[in-house]
Amino acid sequence: MKGILRKGMTVEALTEFMLAQGPSKNTNLMEWDKLWAINKQIIDPVCGRYTAISTIKISKVEVVNLPDEFVSFETPLHPKVILHNN
Fold it and tell me: What distances in angstroms separate CA 82 from CA 24, 43, 75, 86, one per listed residue?
């Protein structure tokens, strides 16, 4: 169990996966894809997605049509998360 948790699996996803199999004594074959899909549904709302730009490949960056005033805005850390302005 420690190995799968090190790969990013949550305990909630494992619990939900086991409950989806049911208490039957019959053999129930479920794919690993379903387990990772459940995990993704749990992780998506709480984890941010970050983007990085490698400085190795970029030699020069030129910014044109820059406004005189600095504009700042917030974006959600995940595409599915919507920021609400109060």
Answer: 40, 16, 9, 13
